[in-house]
Amino acid sequence: MKDTVEDFTKKLFYALFDDEDEKEWQMLKSTFLEIGKQVCKKDRVLTWEAFYKTLPEVRRKLDLDAIAINKNDPASKCLEEVYLAYPGFHAIAIYRISHELYKLDMPIIPRMMSEYAHNLTGIDIHPGATIGESFFIDHGTGIVIGETSVIKKHVKIFQGVTLGGLQVNKSMASTKRHPTIEDHVTIYANATILGGDIVIGAHSTIGANVWISESVPEHSLVTYKTEIKIRPKNNGVR
Question: Which member of 4, 46, 113, 160 has the greatest number of CB atoms within 10 A?
């Protein structure tokens, strides 16, 4: 089933950006229904129909994500490059697809889809996370975004960022364990933000390598200072 889910996810990703192909969508529906036999106790046809109706909105959000990446990344030459060659965009796309199934209470499958994206890109986004429009992941390797994370609009995240929980405890399964990131926040490489009651205020910048376990007000700059000493070479003279 794992191979089937990965193939389904890949074809669904492509179908979002291809011209309407009724035959392809019928094949995707059949695969979905077949997968659902093994994991879904609900009416699989109704689940597919509800999921299918969300896809135009998924595509709209993905176009905004691509525009945000192209606008903010100086290395991006055009939108086509983002769609075809950016692992961050690929991870966001599969997240947005799997998130819709997660909201429909489709068990296991969204997690398998997110793990497929994780294997491809090195970016681990739980399908339960809530992520707003115009989301920009730069590079992306090593990013972890937990299930109850809330990321609002126009947020930029760099490689190695963790939005996690302060502790791993099964009794907290139904509580908010991961932080909230408000609009227009930038989080630089390897920053770690932990805790369900943590809010990073709008228009803040979180510098590289910081560790945050308390809320940050709006328009803040949070940095980690380390002392680096550079001494000139003595050209072999002692």
Answer: 113
